[in-house]
Amino acid sequence: MTAQLLKGRQLAKQLQAELSESFAELATAAGVQPTLAALQVGADPAAAGYLRAIRRACQGVGVALRPVELDEKSSPEEVQAALTTLNDDKAVHGIMVLEPLPDHVDSSQLIDFLSPAKDVDGVHPLNAGRLAAQRQPHFVPATPAGAIMLLEDADVTFKGKKAVVIGRSDIVGKPMALLLLHRHCTVTVAHSRTEDLPSVAREADILCVAVGRPEMVTGDWIKPGAVVVDFGTTYVGNSVKGDCEPASVEAAAGMFTPVPGGTGPMTNVMLMHNLLSAYRRLVSAS
Prior knowledge:
Largest sheet: 6 strands, parallel
Distance between the termini: 55 Å
CATH architecture of the largest domain: 3-Layer(aba) Sandwich
Strand order of the largest sheet: 1-11-8-7-5-6
Radius of gyration: 19 Å
Number of helices: 10
CATH topology of the largest domain: Rossmann fold
Helix content: 40-55%
Pfam families: THF_DHG_CYH, THF_DHG_CYH_C
Pathway: One-carbon metabolism; tetrahydrofolate interconversion
Number of strands: 11
Subunit structure: Homodimer.
CATH class of the largest domain: Alpha Beta
GO molecular function, one term: methylenetetrahydrofolate dehydrogenase (NADP+) activity
Order of helices and strands: EHEHEHEHHHEHEHEEEEHEH
């Protein structure tokens, strides 16, 4: 068996074109430039790299990016004040807080001050709670939302299937489990402390891996014909590795999202999708 590779680039291009048209129509009608603000504290290379990717995504759909860069030594109060200013600015329609933050800035405490209406990353507790309760409107974190759209585009059947999510982060693992549950899967959330993790993984019709351990999952973890979603992106030298060992997993799975090129292209386009929703609501309310 050789898995069907689910690559997100083509679908992302299609969605980008649709989003670009929608933003242009709404901006013309409202006379307001759609704007995403990105708050960065310090000069961490990972945050800086993500900011470059966000800039490209914004340019692709005709959205303005407002980077707000604070010194690494900024106090928690100064960072909170900058975030509050963005919350109150009617010209800003979405806000992202780029991580990692310096150790002296408590990420979870800062996120509590983020306006839920501008939380296009879906990290505020209110948005996380609305996702858990399956209530609209809410913002779904872009990475799992993109993966679900990629699976739906491939006509994956969810109802009644056994899904296993390895990883329990607030930004990928937990929301992915909820999205699968909302589609009537029977969901198990596993993690590094799960006993006999390979045997748990082998029960899955749909296996999602988001642990950040390069090539941890091998083909003998895979139920023959399963759908495998690899969220991993770990840089090893000059290459990026997923959480799955590609050759053996491709040989066992029915469908597989490769790294790079699988879920990755969908993430930032889904972020723009969230921004469109925020822009539409905020402009109509003003």
